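Fold it.
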Amino acid sequence: MSSYTPPENIQEILNNLPTSPGVYQMFDRKGTIIYIGKAKNLRNRVRSYFQPGNVQTKVQRIRERVVDIKIIVLEDEVAALTAEAQLIRHHKPRYNVIWKDDKRYPY
C-alpha cells in the first residue's frame, strides 16, 4: 500500500471542515472545478478522498489535481442532493459521472 499525505493547504482545509450536510467543490490549479459532491457529513466525506488507503482510480486522479476545496453548508441531505445536481449540470466537472444511459466516467 502506498503512503499518501495531503498537501499542507489541503490538510488545513480538511482540519476545518464542519460535520454539517452540504456540497463540496474541488478545484485544480487553474481554478476549474474538477469534482462536485454532496455529503451528509462534509468532514467525513471530504476527508475520505485523502485517506492513504483510498486507492480508487478516480479518487487518486482527483487528489493528484486538487489544490482547493470549497464547501456550501446546507440544512439537510435533500438540499445537498438538489444543489449538487444543479452545480454539476452548470459546471460539468471533469470527474463527475456523465448522467447518460451508460453512466460512463469521462476518463
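The chain has one domain: 8-91.
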